[in-house]
Amino acid sequence: MKNLQLIGLFLVVAGSFLPLVHIPIIGNWNYRKVDNTLAVAVWGFSLLMLVFILIDKTKFVRIIAFLMILLFVFTIVAIKLKSLDYFSFLPFKSWQSTFAGIVKLSWGWFIEFLGIALILISSIKNIESRRHKDLHN
After folding, report:
1. With a threshold of 0.85, does the pTM exceed it?
2. How open is the CA angle 2-8-11, to the nearest 5 degrees?
3. What is the pLDDT of residues 56-73, one digit of tens each?
4. Whole-number percent of the chain with pLDDT over 70
């Protein structure tokens, strides 16, 4: 199960460098271009998760995985709110929401959430296999 967790962690880190937001004319943004602080938080959580995976602390891996899910959701909400705020100079709310709608989430989020899902699934299976071994001993 450790290998599956490491693959999931690789997907999370790789996903942070993939396009997460597409803005017409400007192009695609990854986590670093969206916000440096959030990117450092993702990489810090990833490093901490790597340590917990290597020392086989499944409970802490799950905690960090849930914190990363919250961070991803926070980032998506912040992107949507920032895009609304970015076009606040427009006089009508309908114009603001129309122009904010051109900021689209990209396919990198799929890789981010796939990586976290792999980590969570493998950590749950790891806990179940430990319980199964303890029952037979």
Report:
1. no
2. 145
3. 888 999 999 999 999 999
4. 86
